[in-house]
Design a protein that fits this description.
heterodimer; A: alpha+beta; 3 strands; B: alpha+beta; seven-stranded antiparallel sheet; 7 strands
Chain lengths: 107, 143
């Protein structure tokens, strides 16, 4: 597993952080205040999670007036998609073997 | 986009196969046949039956039958236990068979890390890492 996958898994392993990221994916750009209002943790905690997500490239921030708006960067998930393609490759090859077996089996 | 983001953590392989569901079902449920295309095993198509899938590489998966609907659905857990909890993997494999004009549409869904599931990404990543490393060795040999 590559380092980038490792970082992503670590980032998304925390349920609170994952929930924040999922909300940004689902609902689009939001401020820290809006995210805190529905999170079960304090604003400093939300800010800390956002900072880590930003470091991992999973979110981007944009300053507007006194507010900072955060948005999800879905392209950062690409290494995870590589990971699932590995697993897809495994099952595709097993399906090939299954088909070979079916050809050999009696009706 | 969130839907697709979470779906990337579940693998789906679907194929139309020119044989009837009954025949494919045998290949999915009879231990000597499973061994020929998947792994050595002590499978039994009974809900609650616990069995192992043993890879050529020496890795052992702990499994439990979750659902059996003959010729239609088969589901079992696909867990990889490790003394270090960080290496554990908990996932579920579900096969679905649907008859078609030419045979059967076989669908396999392998879901590992749905958000909210007890086993989070972090806990499972190392198990997968180990699994893939071994898997690559196996695949290299099966060509």
């Amino acid at each position: 597993m590559s380092e980038s996958q490792d970082i992503l898994f670590r980032m998304l392993a925390d349920p609170t952080r994952r929930a924040i990221f999922e909300r940004l994916c689902r609902e689009g750009e939001q401020t820290v205040g809006a995210l805190t209002a529905r999170a079960k943790v304090s604003q400093p905690a939300v800010s800390k999670h956002l900072g880590l997500l930003k470091q991992a490239g999973l979110v981007r921030d944009r300053h507007k007036g006194r507010q900072t708006h955060y948005s999800a960067q879905l392209s950062a998930l690409a290494p995870l998609i590589d990971w699932t393609s590995q697993m897809t490759g495994f099952w595709q090859s097993r399906f090939d073997r299954l088909e070979d077996l079916l050809k050999r089996m009696d009706q | 986009m969130n839907e697709s983001a979470t779906e990337t953590l579940s693998v789906v392989v679907e194929r139309e196969i020119p044989y009837p569901p009954e025949k494919i079902w045998r290949a999915l449920t009879q231990p000597h046949l499973i061994a020929e295309w998947l792994m050595n095993n002590d499978f039994n198509a009974v809900v609650g039956h616990r069995f192992n899938l043993r890879g050529d590489w020496g890795g052992v998966l702990d499994c439990e039958v979750l659902a059996v609907e003959p010729n239609k659905t088969l589901s079992y857990t696909w867990n990889f236990a490790h003394a270090d909890a960080a290496f554990n993997l908990e996932s579920v494999v579900t096969f679905t068979l649907a008859p078609t004009d030419i045979g059967t549409r076989l669908r396999m869904e392998h879901s590992g890390f749905r958000p909210g599931q007890k086993q989070a990404y972090g806990g499972a990543k190392a198990g997968w890492q180990q699994f893939f490393t071994k898997l690559e060795q196996v695949l290299a040999r099966t060509d």
